[in-house]
Design brief:
The chain is of the alpha+beta class. Helix content is 45%, strand content 9%.
């Protein structure tokens, strides 16, 4: 989504910058703010799954996008972390009244974030974007809770199977190439040993072979002389 920094009046940008700075310095409980100096119109946040809900223990990444008509028009909210919730679509769009008909310019971004967090505690199946989640919430809460908790464990928790907050293993991904000009590094540690081993072994084998050949030649020559002497005696 394109930035709206150039589309917003300077006085609006100053107000947004001031509010975002205040949020980053003193965020609501369970919410973290990640402001961008390059684009103040797109605010990235993370929300801790509230205790007592199937989202407990998860960290859900989210963003708020301020349009060119902000604050006359409410921001748009999106979950970046997958979540099974009646009011969150499969694409992450959030349906909550404060981002629609109940929006007032004076409410501010803090109110929006708190309302979205409350939505995790009290879903509203009447305005469901995820119809299956809304139906299960009304008809089979145990199944709804099971599905919501499963997706939380898979997508919002660190550790096996989780993707939220897991540091990347430095051994993952492409590894730096070894120096192409150094044959010992290119071929591995054994390359440094091989030339020496070949040298010693080759010289030793050569010396042994040479001595053996000389001894064989002398033996043959001596045998021929002895044969000649025996032949002369017979005459």
């Amino acid at each position: 989504m394109n930035s709206n920094v150039e589309n917003l009046p300077p006085h609006v940008l100053r107000l947004v910058y001031k509010e975002v700075s205040a949020l980053a310095a003193d965020p609501p409980e369970g919410i973290k703010i990640y402001p961008s100096e390059e684009d103040i119109t797109e605010l990235h946040t993370s929300i801790e799954g509230p205790e007592g809900t199937p989202f407990a223990g998860g960290i859900f990444r989210m963003r708020l996008v301020l349009g060119k008509d902000f604050p006359a028009v409410p921001p748009k909210g999106y979950f970046l972390t997958k979540i099974f919730h009646p009011n969150v679509s499969h694409k992450g769009e959030i349906c909550v009244n404060v981002l629609k008909r109940d929006w007032k310019a004076e409410l501010g971004l803090r109110h929006v974030l708190l309302t979205i967090k409350c939505l995790l505690i009290h879903p509203n199946p009447e305005s469901a974007l995820n119809e299956e989640a809304g139906r299960l919430l009304l008809e089979d809460y145990a199944e709804y809770e099971s599905r919501a908790r499963l997706l939380t464990e898979i997508h919002a928790m660190g550790g096996p199977g989780g993707t939220s907050g897991v540091p990347q293993d430095p051994n993952d991904g492409p590894q730096p190439k070894k120096h192409a000009g150094d044959p010992t590094k290119r071929a591995g540690p054994s390359a440094a040993i091989v030339p020496a081993a070949l040298g010693n072994g080759a010289n030793g084998a050569s010396t042994t072979s040479s001595n053996s050949n000389s001894s064989n030649i002398n033996n043959v020559a001596g045998k021929k002389k002895a044969d000649k002497k025996r032949a002369l005696r017979r005459l």
